Amino acid sequence: MEFDLIARHFTRATPGAVLGVGDDCALLAPTPGMQLAVSSDMLLEGRHFSPQDSPAGLGHKSLAVNLSDLAAMGATPRWATLAIALPEENDAWLTAFARGFFRIADQHGIELVGGDTTRGTLAISITVMGEVPPGQALRRDGAKVGDDVWVSGVIGSAALALAYRQGRLFMEQIDAARVLPALYLPTPRIELGLVLRGLASSAIDISDGLLGDLGHILERSHVGATLEFSALPTLPVTTTSSASPPLPASGMRCWQPPHPRA
To answer: How far is CA 201 from CA 125, 196, 228, 238, 250, in A?
Structure first.
């Protein structure tokens, strides 16, 4: 089962790799002088997605959340591996999943170079690899006193979509249509991450929420921050502002805490 599934759905040419799918290991040759950025994420049925979710959308989402980590580091995507547990062999489901996966992979020039399949409760684990010039990675420990805090896009879309899907929040259909793509078809900000090399002092993917993820930067950088929530870009469903490009938030600034951690 395993080798047939891999051959039918996940084996493609990988011109950017020395050796791709089909052997015990992939063989990769990073660009000379570049550093390798590596990140892994796991998605579990019932926790990160519903059994009723579109397999094509799930293929997109599973890679997009990993690509978002590369974007946060200012890394150029290169390769990925995919491990997937399946309760049963389902060619139609896998065909749609692979279509969504490879569609976003092609958009960002990333090649699938290996992975694994097994039988079990549906679970998807992806490792992505990218490249970044030495000293230009957007690390969490780079924030400095006096830095402005910026966010890109619109805050809270996926959380609103999840609450709507779970029946915890009512929205008109026109509003729901604006937030659901953030949950099902998230957009990794690869291009923005590349532009921020040499400009931003620190960055993070805020998929776990603005306050929680900003807290990671503050802890690693030994600084504090003041936020003005009225300046945050939010959705028209909660505010009359519909700003979507990266916005500087007035009053959002890093400062030195009185007792910095050692």
So the answer is: 30, 9, 20, 31, 18
Q: Which residue has the tokens 């799918």?
A: 21
Architecture of domain 140-154+184-255: Alpha-Beta Complex (3.90)
Q: Which CATH architecture has domain 2-132?
A: 2-Layer Sandwich (3.30)
Give residues with Cβ within 8 angstroms of 27, minimum separation 6. 17, 18, 19
pLDDT digits (tens, 9 = 90+) for 44-99: 988 888 888 999 999 999 999 999 999 999 999 999 999 999 998 888 999 999 99
- Residues 75 and 69: their CA atoms lie apart, in Å, by 9
DSSP string, the chain: -HHHHIIIII----TTSSB-TTSSS-B--PPTTPEEEEEEEEEEBTTTB-TTS-HHHHHHHHHHHHHHHHHHHTPEEEEEEEEEEESS--HHHHHHHHHHHHHHHHHTT-EEEEEEEEESS-EEEEEEEEEE-TT----GGG--TTPEEEE-S-TTHHHHHHHHHTTSS---HHHHHHHHHHHHS----HHHHHHTTTT-S-----TT-HHHHHHHHHHHHT-EEE--GGGS---TTT-S----S-EEEEEEEEE--SS---
Cβ neighbours of 172 (radius 10 Å): 9
